[in-house]
Please model this.
Amino acid sequence: MIDGPFFALTVVGVLGTGLVAGVFCAFSAFVMRGLTALPPAQGVAAMQAVNAAAVRPAFMAVFLGSAVLCAVIAVVTFALWPRGAVELLLGSALYLFGSFGVTAAANVPRNEALGRLRPGTAEAAAYWPSYLREWTAWNHVRTVASAAAALTYVLALT
Model:
């Protein structure tokens, strides 16, 4: 079993990646479905407001903090190669690539494109269905990756 400061890092890693998984799961399970039910102008405006609210300290501390923590766990794991090293490295990779990386490569560019549109325009209405479909598909990936990262960190602790 992992012990000492590395145990604490891993427990915080479980908490951070699990919290992020929960946020992403909420979007996949009901937030995006609710936005889909709105007329395009209202859905676009609501999602723009959500995107603006997401980059505030409360969420960013958990999301970015978890990425930094996963990177630290990976580096320390390579240096010390403790029991559970494979699970620790897998958990770090799942979060860093499947959650943080997908966010940067897939979700953020879609958010930025949506943010440039005025909600009541024909252009926004035309973009909205593909935004919903693509953003949500990538969000499913982020959800699974974050939850899997938390699970693999838990397995490393056992």
In short: The longest helix spans residues 122-157. The chain has a mean pLDDT of 97. Residues 37 and 125 are 13 Å apart (CA to CA). The chain has one domain: 4-157.
